[in-house]
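agent> Task received from the user: take the single chain below, predict its 3D structure, and emit structure tokens. No templates, no multimer pairing.
agent> Plan: (1) validate residues, (2) run structure prediction, (3) serialize to tokens, (4) report one or two observations.
agent> Step 1 OK, no nonstandard residues flagged.
tool_call: predict_structure(input=
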Amino acid sequence: MVAVHELSWEEVSAPDFGVRAAWRAAVAEIAAKAKLPECNGRIDSAVKIVLAGDVELLADGTARVASQSNGTTAYHVVNGHCDCRDYEKAPHNFCKHRLSAAIARRAQELTRAKLDAPVNSQVESPALPQASSAVPPSPLPEAPASVNIHVELAGRQVQLTLRDSDEGRLLQRLEAVLQRFPLVVKPVDTTPQCPTHGPMKPSTKGKGWYCPAKLPDGGWCKSR
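)
tool_result: status=success, residues=224
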């Protein structure tokens, strides 16, 4: 069994290109093996956070992750729980901070193991935590802004749903879609209608319209 030692950020960011290359390769390998397709965007963000050195792994097993939008804010990942606002909305609670802490920890283990392992030996990368199959996945959060429209495509009526996190941007996208699918104005039937029997016929005398329906008593409907 290969002993795995702690790998500091100073070692990773040092001019030793062998360590740095092994670290980056470990991060990419672990992220590629993550079986969380609904979290792909967050995994990409988590990889950027890890490679930027914004994850601090603490001795007690917790992690501190720097905010990407506020330089003075840091989020804490403790026992798989993060105190950011996205934690409750993220699929299976895998926010980018929780994912970045998991990637950093496993990348550290994999990098050190590969550096310590004998030549030609293979070291399996530790996997990211997977969503439990025993627990049904929680539904994705509803988009802050959405709109449904019906367009005619290849002679068929199709419902198109647009979703976005910004209402102004959503309206711009909607306008672009409406320009691509202009409104088809169908000719309006101007034939007068009898309130009882439906469409009338034009008078043979060239004036007006009449109802061609014959009544049960043998007479004709007198609607004009």
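agent> Step 4: summary for the user.
The beta strands are 55-57, 63-66, 74-78, 81-82, 145-153, 156-164, 193-194, 198-199, 201-202, 209-210.
agent> Done.
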